Amino acid sequence: MEEISKDLKNFICANIIDAEVNINDEDALKEIGVDSFSIIEIVLFIERKFGVLIPDELLVPETFYSIRSIAEVVEKIKLN
User: Fold this and answer.
1) What crossing angle do the helices spanning 2-15 and 36-50 adopt, rounded to 10°?
2) pTM of the full predicted structure?
3) How far apart are CA 77 and CA 69, in angstroms?
């Protein structure tokens, strides 16, 4: 799961938030400027990078609360 978190953080830092913003895995993404359009970008990144589809029932705010919460969902999907 650490590798997933690292890849997600790198993607978010490079493509979504300002380079000046420093984040960790537990930070609330909404509070650092990640909006609904950004969530779509993250979902597409996950599909391309990890080869998994996030089921509709997991496309909820709780899944995308933080880098850690997203990584946990991706890890569970990959294990199934």
Assistant:
1) 130
2) 0.94
3) 13
Nearest residue to 28 via CA among 73, 1, 56, 68: 68
The residue-averaged pLDDT of 36-50 equals 97
Total domain count for the chain? 1
CA 60 to chain centre: 12
6-36 per-position pLDDT tens digit: 999 999 999 999 888 999 999 999 999 999 9
Own/partner pairs, 9-16, CB within 8 angstroms, 24+ separation: 9/67, 11/42, 11/45, 11/49, 12/38, 12/42, 12/67, 15/41, 15/45, 16/41, 16/42
Q: Range of 23's domain?
A: 2-79
CATH number at residue 12: 1.10.1200.10
